[in-house]
Structures are given as C-alpha cells and as structure tokens.
Amino acid sequence: FEIVGEGPEQARLEAEIARLGLGGTVVLGLPRRDIAGFLAGIDQFWLTSDWEGTPNVVLEAMAAGVPVVATAVGGTPELIEDGRSGFLVEPGSPDAFVSRAIRLLDDEELARAVGQRAQELAATRFSIPAMVGATSKVYDSLYA
Q1: What DSSP designation does 34 have?
Q2: How does pLDDT run across 57-66, given as a tens digit for each residue?
Q3: Which of 43, 50, 70, 105 is the most exposed place for a label (fewest CB within 10 A)?
Q4: Contact in structure between 68 and 49 (CB atoms under 8 Å)
Q5: What is the DSSP letter of 54?
C-alpha cells in the first residue's frame, strides 16, 4: 500500500505506520513526478479527501483505466458515475470505503469494467479536445 505525496499529516502518518508495525506493508511515498508510470502499476486509486475542488488526480487515474474509489466531495461526483466508472462514498465512512475497495479486489471483472468505463469517460468528457469543445460551445452561446 503506497501513500503518494507529502503534506502536513506526513509525520503523524509515519508515526502511525511505525506504531502499527506496518513499515513493510505501507509505504509513505515521496512526491512522484512520473504519475502515468505510477498509475500503470496500481490496481486501484483511492481519494479519501474530506474536501476537494475538482481533483485532476482522479481524472489521471480514470484516463489510465484505474478503478477509483473516492469520497463524494467537491467536484469529484461530477467526474465519477457511481458504480459505473468508479465508486463514491460519503466522507467519514471508512467502512463503506473499504467495502467498495474490497469489492473491486474480489471481482476482477468488475474492476476491469469500471476501469474501462472510467477511461472511456475521461477520454470523451474530460480530454483536452472535449474540454475545448465544451468551452467553445459556451462562448458560441454567449455571442449567438
């Protein structure tokens, strides 16, 4: 299990990992520059935020075809079709979060299908050409 990035919780997480004896299982990673390479090597992507804007990292995971389990905060529900292209859970619901993650681990076909739908959704709705087209339509509607 790898936690990527750094932030104000890093020291607390390091202490908790050591306290639980999980040093060989949980890796608290440093910031990664090769996000595509990282995503290519994982089975699931989790976003456990209590608040978010519209998280690019979720789009990056979706574009890589990685099934996402994320809290339904900020703009995340606008990115994921719950149960189809990923799973959304309410913040502060660790049991629900773990349940979705285990479901993906236990059902490889489901994980593959969710990842494929996520990749398709990222390409059709959130790719650069799709976003430029949507923005152009807004401008065109303003000047029509």
Answers
A1: -
A2: 999 999 999 9
A3: 50
A4: no
A5: S
